[in-house]
Every structure is written in structure tokens, then in C-alpha cells.
Design goal:
heterodimer, A: mainly alpha, 3-stranded antiparallel beta sheet, 45% helix, globular, disordered N terminus, B: alpha+beta, 6-stranded mixed beta barrel, 6-stranded mixed barrel, 26 helices, 53% helix
């Protein structure tokens, strides 16, 4: 039986991240959010192309919680935004490192694609 | 909006139930909120689409969550197994014993009752018996004219075929003369039992009188080296050339395995015309769509019409039995017994594991309490514990399948000749599935109570009490007591029946046969019919043969008889007594014997005389009867000098004068009633005979000499079935011995498993009461008081279990009393033996816990608290 990944392992072990998972991590990068806020944020940043269903969202959240990439907030956030019925999630330091590594990986992939001309080169400034 | 909201809540809430409960409790409310948020501000159509999509996503995601949970639970079960290797090994081994024995027995049952017969559409084949209440026979044979009537009149039977056995001498075709078991059958036999494939062809409709033969794969191998070119060649059966037209596959056997050739019936004129003899066996095939009950109904009507038309058919009925049922019938009672016993062992094994799980659940109370305190729901803990249990049982199932395979292999190896079909039984894939399914289901059944109890732990209480296990709760203790009592009861039932079977076997062995089989060699010697047409010739052959055998070194006596051991339906007939007008229906057997027959077998003469050489073909025809015949038909008179004929009173058949009465013998088999028997002098009509040699040494050593003597006399005589008479008799009870030892092994397994269960419980109870015992000791009790304390527990447990078990045992034995011999189902000696065995095993199981109790060190225990 394969051993479970232990917490605190190298971020690279989590890569590559599934798209939904990366989206959720990115959406938690600038502020702590509750479920619907994540959903809305992901939709807005993708111009409405990515609309997660609640079940997908919470399946991702559960996995992220279990592997220690996000955590549930015990204290309430800014009272202005607080909604007592909801649970808020925050990126853990490990989660942040994992998201960064994934972003770097994607950048490298994109750079490679540019070198071969598959994707147009960035215009010089 | 609120209405829509309510509808979405209800629908989505319902669909969320597809998730594992723990997942739904954790996230269900949030998901509903998110969905409602998402719907806000959307148009009607969009709302419907989004709601629909969300529901569909749940349906798609739910199995994944279940799987994740299962994987995680199985992983934790694997960790548990690594951590508690001993506990796991003992539980897995225990389950494996139960599953293994059941799997082996079920495979046998499946092969007998479920697996396809080796014929195409074998399910439509039925055996047709004559019901003959006149002679007290429920399954009698028929006659040729009656078979034709059945065939002509039935609308629901496709083919009605008749057949009879024939012992033929096979000569030629490269090899010594040998006796061959041949079936002579109406040509349509293979329309009823259709071979799956053949080489060559089968009989044509018109070949009833043609000398052709279909042979078995085995015979082809033995006589023709397996060459298919044998087809078209000729085989000498009783000196008559028969053309080989086809070869049947090795998987085909009908009606018995020993049959190696099938030839057309070739009925004689006498056989074609006579309705009264019972000699022809009948099988038929149901028309497509006809049920056995319909066909039986039709045959009842036909039988009563035939009874009105023919005197010989009066009082006769017809009984249809499915071919499969007919084949399985002799083995069913023993199969029922062994199935019940193996399920009993399985039950005991499962109960053992349930008991161990309860004990371990109690020991893990603290761990579980902490998990509950940390937010795991009761249902989540239950699910995890159940998964652990099922994983353990499944591992037991896998090991059990291996064990069952081994048991089957062993059974195949030690199966007696009468159970030769066991060699075809194997453990197939469906059976593996059944075994694992059984393991999973028993795991759920026997895991649910222990799991529920441990999951129901009151967290606060346990943690506060600081107890590290122990399990003080009364409920769990009572539950384990009930478990052990039920084990003892089940083991009592199995062991008690095993004891009864052993007692039966001992009785069977002690039965007085009425003759002395030890030191006697028997062999069948057959004369080719064409070669010695005259009775005088045949007599001369046997005279010369016996003369030569008698003078062999080590031979004390030689004799011959038309049969020695009788089958279930020996050659017998209705008969008439001089001076009485009616035909006597109770059949009288008639065997043709040489004068020394009774002396060689040591059958005592009660009145009159044995046959002598003065009884010749020319002198008056004489007969000897057995005691049962004398008592039945001449109850208050001397039968010597009375005359009877083996035919109706008005016929002109010859009279036989009774010259002697011999003691009864159990020639029909140890377990069967003695027939009314008669013996006729061989000088008056010798045929093929079983030769008997009484020897001073091991009789089988003389077999080769016997063969040589016969060959020297005439190489065309066939010698077959050489065997020691006592071995033939042992073979007859071999299936009983086999079943008995099997059941005894099951009984031993049941008792051993129960003993471990009892040991576990006692050890646990003693551990629980250490404190109490320490207190008792410190206020003056002696270790012997503590012994009494534990002994009382043992007494109550074993006493209750045995009492329940014994009543169950009597019920079981009564319903299976057909398997018993010479003992009543309530036989008290057997029950005392059973109780004795249980009590001694209980004492052994109690020994360690008792010693532990007696060595309690009060100061140590009390200080530790």
C-alpha cells in the first residue's frame, strides 16, 4: 500500500495541480474567502468561463484541507464582510509555496512553447 | 424567490444524500448556501440549468467521495493489521477455517445439485420408475411391452428409452479376455442423454437388432491406443462380432462410470412379449415446455389405463424423477449433514471473531473516544470499524478459498470408490465469488454489533475515567457471554451428531454378517455363452475349475455361486407354494450355488442338509432357504420337504423341494434387512459364477494363480473383479466411514474454535475481576475460592450452551436419522460422550485463566490502583 504524503513535504510533490485546485489556491492568494466568494472570484477572473459547481468546489476544498494546503479560519474575518453562516478558508504557507511552484511551472511551460513558436512571442516593450 | 429557494433546498438536499453521511454533515449545508447564492439574480432558464447542473455534479462526485472514504478506511484497516498483527492473524485464520470448510462442502453440493449434467439439455432427462406397492418396491424396473406402451401413449415425453446392464466378455482387439460392463439400450437412448460431442455416429432408429457398439474413450484408449481408426472395426462381445460405430467423450458417463460400451438392446422374443418381469430400466426426455408435474400427471393416467387393460399392470404406478435428482438422491442426506456442520463451524468462527472484536473495541475505547471528541461522528467511526472488520473477513475469505481448495484436493484423494464422482469436483470461479461474498456478508453481520458498541462510546465519560481500555460496561460483557453460549450450543450440535455417526459406524462394523468374509477371495468367472450351450458342459467347466483350485497350496475350500453379495435389487421373483392357490408377490431371491458354498462362507445349517453331489440335473430339483423365508412362509411348520416354484401356481414350471434351512446372512449389505432368499443347486442350472476361495493367507495373493488356472482351463473364459470378500464389504461401508470422519473433523474444528472463544472470554472476565479478586484475597479468601468463582462461570456457560445444544442436537439427529444406524437420535451414551468431550475441552480452555486468577497478588493489584 502506498504511503500517504506526509504534511510538510516538498511543494513539488503536489505538482502538477489539477486546474480546479490551482484556481481555488489562486483565489485564496490575496484574501481569505468563503465558498461562494471563491466560486465568484474564479468565475470573474476567467470571464465567466470557469463556473465550479458546489460539489466540485467542496471536493477540492476537502482535498486541500486534508493535504494541509489551506485551512479553515477559526477567528472571523473583517466584520464588514462576515457572514456567520459561512466557513472561511485561508492559504497555509505550504499552500502558498505549492501555488507559487505551480505558477512557475506553468510559466516555464509557456516559455518553452514560445521558444518553438507554438505561441506568439511577447512583444518587446 | 422563496418558493424557488425552497424547491432547490428540498431537491438538492435530497440529492446530497448520495454522499457519505460524514461528508454531507461536513459540507452539505455550505454547498446548499453556495448554490443558492449562485442562483441569485439569474434568469428563470439559467436558474433551472444551474440547479440541474449542480445536482448532476453531485451525482457524479458522490461515488468518488465514497471511494475516497473507502480507500482511507481500508488504509487505516491495513495500519491496524500491521499494528495488531497477532489479533489480525488469529481472526483471519479463524474466518479462513470457517470459509474454507464451507467452500469445500458447497463446491461438492454445487457439483451435485447445480452444475450441468454431462449431457446436452440434461435438465429435461427424467428417470421412469415403476411404482410396485404389491412387492413393496417404490422404484422398480419395467418390461419391454410396457415401455413401448409408455412411448406410444405419452404426449409430453419426447423420447422414452429403455436399457439394461449386461456383463459381456470382450475378446480379440489386442488383449486378454476381459469382462466388460455393457449397456444394452433402445436406439433412442442417446436422444435422452445426448453426448456433448461424439466421434463417429450413434445408433440409428432401425438398429435395435443390429450388432453395433458405441464405446467409451477409456476403452478406445485401452484396446486401440486411442486411435479413431478403430471406428468401423469389430469387437467380440461374448464371441459375437459388433461393429464399432462411435466413441463417446471421457466426460460422458451413463448410467454409471464403469460402463464402457453401449449396444442396441436386441431383445429376445421372450423379452419382447412378457409384461410381468421387472428388468428394463427406463429414461425419457420431457418435451420442451412440459413440466415434470404435467408429465407425471399424464403418466398416472396412462398407468391406470394400462392397469385396466393388462392383468400384469394391476396395482402398478409410474414415478418420474429428474435425472439430476436421481443421481443426487443417495448423497443428499450426507450432503445436508455436512453443509449444516460446515455452516456451524463458520458460525462458531464468526462468533469467535465477533467476540475478539468486542474485546478489542473495549480496549480501544479511549482511542475512539478521543476521535469522537475531535469531531468524528458516530456513523463515521462505525463505518470505519465496519470496514476494518470486513477487510479482516475478506482476508480470511481469501485464505479460506485456498484452504477450501486444499480440503477439496484431499477429499478427492481419499474418496472411496462409491464416491468416485468427487474427483470431478473442483473449486471454480463462481464458487470463489460465493466464498468471498460469504466472507463479506458474515463480516458485516458479525462486525456490526461490536462496531456499533465501540462507536457508541461516550467520549466524555471514558476520557474522564482515565481507563485505558478494560471495558467495564455490562452490555459488552453480556453480549460476549451470549456469543460464547451460542458457540457452545452450535459445537454441541455438531459434536453430538458426529458422536452419533461414530457410534453408527461402530455398530455397522459389529453387525454379524451371518458368514465369515475374512480370508475369502472372490472372482467373477464368466463363460462365453456360445461356447458352452449345454448346462452339462457349463457344469463340467466349473467342476474342473473348482477341483483344480481346491488342491492349490494354502486353499482350504473352493465354491461358487451366481452371486455372493446382493445388490439393492437382486435377482428375485414372485413365486408359488404347493397347496396354496395364490401367487406370492413378496420377491424370493434365487441363487445357484455349488455344494461347498455354505461351508466356504461358513453359513450354518439350521435344519435338513446342504446340497450334495447326489443333487444332479436328473434327480429331483432341490432348494435351500434362509431362516427368514422359513419363518415368513412356513411360520408354524417344518419347511423341509415342502415344494415351491418360481412362477405363478398355474404355470408348468418345475417344483423345487426344500431340503435345508440355513441361517440368515446380510448378503444384501450390512445396513439392509435380510431378504427372503433361496438357493438352488448349481448342478441343475449353472451359468456364470462368482468363485470363492477360502485361504489360509492373504487371499489377494492367490488372484494371479486363480487367473492362470482359469486361462489354462480355457483362455476364452473371462475373470473379473478379483477381490478379498472382506474388502468388498469394507468398500460398501466406505462412504459411511468417509462421511463420519469428515463430520468428526468438522466437530473437532467446531470444538477447538469454541474452546478458543471460551478461553478468550474467561481470560477477559478474570482480567476484569482482578480488583475484586484482590480485595477478596486481602479479606481472607483463599485461591480456591477464586477457583470456585471462575469455575462457576465455566459451569454456567458450558451448562447453558450444552443444554441448548443438546435439544438442538436431538432435533437435528431426528431429522437426519436416516444416516444413523443402530443408535436412536436421543442415544444417551453418545450424549454423555459429547458432554464429556466438551467438559474436558472447557477445562483445558479454562486452565490458564483459572491459574491467573489463583495467582492474583492482592497487594500488587491494589497498590497499582
Amino acid at each position: 500500500m502506498p504511503r500517504r504524503r506526509r504534511e510538510g513535504t516538498e511543494p513539488e510533490h503536489f505538482l502538477p495541480l489539477p486546474g480546479d485546485t490551482f484556481d481555488v489556491l489562486v483565489s485564496l492568494a490575496d484574501e481569505d474567502r468563503h465558498g461562494y466568494a471563491i466560486l465568484r472570484d474564479v468565475a470573474e477572473r476567467s470571464n465567466g468561463r470557469i463556473r465550479l459547481s458546489p460539489s466540485t468546489l467542496y471536493a477540492v476544498i476537502k482535498r486541500l484541507l486534508e493535504s494541509g494546503l489551506i485551512e479553515e479560519l477559526t477567528e472571523r474575518p473583517d466584520p464588514a464582510y462576515d457572514d456567520v453562516r459561512r466557513r472561511y478558508y485561508r492559504l497555509t504557507p505550504l499552500g502558498r509555496r505549492v501555488a507559487r511552484c505551480e505558477a512557475a511551472r506553468l510559466t516555464r511551460l509557456l516559455a518553452n512553447a514560445r521558444v518553438t513558436g507554438l505561441v506568439p512571442k511577447r512583444r518587446s516593450p | 424567490v422563496t418558493r424557488v429557494e425552497r424547491a432547490v433546498r428540498v431537491l438538492y438536499g435530497a440529492v446530497l444524500h448520495l454522499y457519505p453521511a460524514s461528508y454531507r454533515e461536513e459540507y452539505g449545508r455550505e454547498m446548499t448556501l453556495v448554490l443558492l447564492d449562485r442562483l441569485r439574480g439569474e434568469g428563470r432558464v439559467a436558474r433551472a440549468l444551474v440547479a440541474l447542473g449542480a445536482n448532476a455534479a453531485v451525482v457524479a462526485d458522490a461515488p468518488r467521495q465514497h471511494l475516497r472514504l473507502l480507500v482511507s478506511d481500508v488504509r487505516s484497516a491495513a495500519r491496524m493489521i500491521r499494528r495488531e498483527a497477532w489479533f489480525a492473524a488469529v481472526s483471519v485464520g479463524t474466518v479462513a477455517i470457517g470459509i474454507g470448510l464451507s467452500t469445500a462442502v458447497f463446491s461438492v453440493g454445487k457439483s451435485l445439485l447445480v452444475d450441468a449434467l454431462p449431457y446436452r439439455e440434461g435438465e429435461r432427462a427424467v428417470v421412469m420408475w415403476v411404482r410396485n406397492p404389491r412387492q413393496g418396491v417404490e422404484r422398480d424396473f419395467t418390461s419391454y411391452p410396457r415401455l413401448l406402451d409408455w412411448r406410444r401413449r405419452s404426449r409430453l415425453l419426447d423420447a422414452v428409452a429403455g436399457y439394461a446392464f449386461r456383463q459381456a466378455i470382450l475378446t480379440g482387439a489386442g488383449g486378454a479376455a476381459e469382462q466388460l460392463l455393457v449397456v444394452r439400450a433402445t436406439p433412442n437412448l442417446f436422444d435422452v442423454v445426448r453426448p456433448n460431442h461424439i466421434v463417429g455416429r450413434l445408433f440409428a432408429e432401425t438398429e435395435e437388432q443390429t450388432p453395433v457398439v458405441v464405446i467409451s474413450q477409456g476403452l478406445l484408449q485401452r484396446r486401440f491406443g486411442g486411435e479413431a481408426s478403430a471406428i468401423g472395426k469389430s469387437l467380440l462381445l461374448d464371441s459375437v462380432p459388433h461393429t464399432i460405430i462411435g466413441v463417446l467423450p471421457a466426460s460422458f458417463h451413463f448410467p454409471e462410470r464403469d460402463v464402457e460400451a453401449w449396444a442396441p438392446l436386441q431383445p429376445t422374443t421372450e423379452e419382447r412379449q412378457a409384461r410381468s418381469p421387472f428388468w428394463l430400466r427406463a429414461v425419457a426426455r420431457l418435451k420442451r415446455g412440459a413440466t415434470p408435474a404435467q408429465a407425471q400427471h399424464e403418466m398416472n393416467a396412462i398407468a391406470s389405463r394400462l392397469a385396466a387393460e393388462h392383468r400384469e399392470d394391476r396395482g402398478l404406478g409410474v414415478r418420474l424423477v429428474g435425472l439430476r435428482d436421481e443421481i443426487a438422491r443417495p448423497f443428499k442426506p450426507a450432503l445436508v449433514m455436512l453443509t449444516a456442520a460446515s455452516l456451524g463451524v463458520l458460525l462458531i468462527a464468526c462468533v469467535n471473531v465477533a467476540g475478539m472484536l468486542t474485546a478489542r473495541g473495549a480496549a480501544r475505547r479511549r482511542e475512539i473516544a478521543i476521535r469522537t471528541a475531535l469531531g468524528a461522528s458516530r456513523r463515521r467511526v462505525l463505518r470505519q470499524r465496519l470496514t476494518e472488520t470486513v477487510v479482516l473477513f475478506l482476508l480470511g475469505g481469501v485464505l479460506g478459498v485456498g484452504l477450501g481448495w486444499g480440503v477439496l484436493r484431499a477429499l478427492r484423494r481419499i474418496a472411496p470408490p462409491a464416491l468416485v464422482w468427487l474427483k470431478d469436483v473442483s473449486l471454480d470461479l463462481p464458487m470463489v465469488g460465493i466464498a468471498l461474498g460469504m466472507a463479506a456478508v458474515t463480516g458485516l453481520l458479525f462486525g456490526v454489533v461490536p462496531s456499533w458498541k465501540s462507536a457508541g462510546t461516550n467520549a466524555a465519560e471514558v476520557i474522564a475515567s482515565g481507563v485505558k481500555g478494560g471495558g467495564h460496561d455490562q452490555v459488552s460483557r453480556r453480549f460476549r457471554r451470549v456469543l460464547v453460549i451460542s458457540q457452545i450450543a452450535t459445537a454441541t450440535v455438531v459434536a453430538s451428531f458426529a458422536t452419533l455417526m461414530v457410534a453408527s459406524l461402530l455398530h455397522v462394523r459389529q453387525v454379524d454378517l451371518g458368514f465369515e468374509p475374512h480370508g475369502v477371495l472372490t472372482a467373477r468367472v464368466q463363460l462365453p455363452p456360445g461356447r458352452y450351450p449345454e448346462p452339462a458342459h457349463r457344469q463340467q467347466v466349473f467342476d474342473r475349475l473348482l477341483e483344480r483350485l481346491r488342491v492349490l497350496p494354502g486353499v482350504q475350500g473352493a465354491a461358487a455361486g451366481s452371486s455372493v453379495l446382493l445388490g439393492r435389487l437382486p435377482a428375485s421373483t414372485s413365486f408359488a407354494i404347493e397347496g396354496r392357490s395364490e401367487l406370492i408377490d413378496q420377491p424370493l431371491t434365487f441363487d445357484i450355488v455349488t455344494p461347498d458354498f455354505f461351508r466356504v462362507l461358513r453359513i450354518p445349517l439350521l435344519r435338513g442338509r446342504y446340497f450334495s453331489h447326489g443333487d444332479t440335473a436328473e434327480s429331483q430339483k432341490v432348494a435351500i432357504i434362509n431362516e427368514t423365508t422359513a419363518r415368513t412362509h412356513w411360520p408354524n411348520e417344518d419347511p423341509i420337504g415342502r415344494r415351491f416354484k418360481l412362477a405363478p401356481p398355474e404355470s408348468d414350471a418345475p417344483w423345487f423341494t426344500v431340503v435345508g434351512v440355513v441361517a440368515d446372512t446380510r448378503r444384501a449389505g450390512v445396513e439392509y434387512e435380510t431378504f427372503t432368499e433361496s438357493y438352488l443347486a448349481y448342478t441343475q442350472d449353472p451359468g456364470s459364477m462368482t468363485v470363492l476361495l477360502r485361504t489360509e493367507r492373504d487371499p489377494t495373493q492367490l488372484a494371479a494363480t486363480l487367473r492362470a488356472v482359469v486361462r489354462e482351463l480355457d483362455p476364452n473364459l473371462a475373470v473379473a473383479h478379483e477381490a478379498a470378500l472382506d474388502e468388498l464389504i469394507a468398500d460398501e461401508i466406505a462412504p459411511r466411514r468417509f462421511n463420519t470422519w469428515l463430520l468428526t473433523a468438522f466437530g473437532a474444528a467446531a470444538i477447538a474454535l469454541t474452546a478458543t472463544g471460551l478461553y478468550g472470554l474467561l481470560a477477559y472476565l478474570v482480567a476484569l475481576r482482578r480488583h475484586e479478586m484482590a480485595v477478596r484475597l486481602s479479606i481472607g479468601a483463599t485461591p480456591h475460592h477464586l477457583l470456585a468463582l471462575v469455575a462457576r462461570d465455566v459451569f454456567v456457560l458450558v451448562g447453558t450452551g450444552a443444554a441448548v445444544g443438546l435439544s438442538g442436537a436431538v432435533v437435528t439427529a431426528t431429522s437426519l436419522r436416516g444416516l444413523l444406524f443402530g443408535v436412536a437420535p436421543w442415544d444417551s451414551l453418545s450424549q454423555i460422550v459429547t458432554i464429556g468431550i466438551l467438559a474436558s475441552v472447557a477445562m483445558v480452555a479454562a486452565w490458564v485463566p483459572v491459574r491467573r486468577a489463583m495467582r492474583v497478588d492482592p497487594a500488587g493489584v491494589l497498590r497499582a490502583e
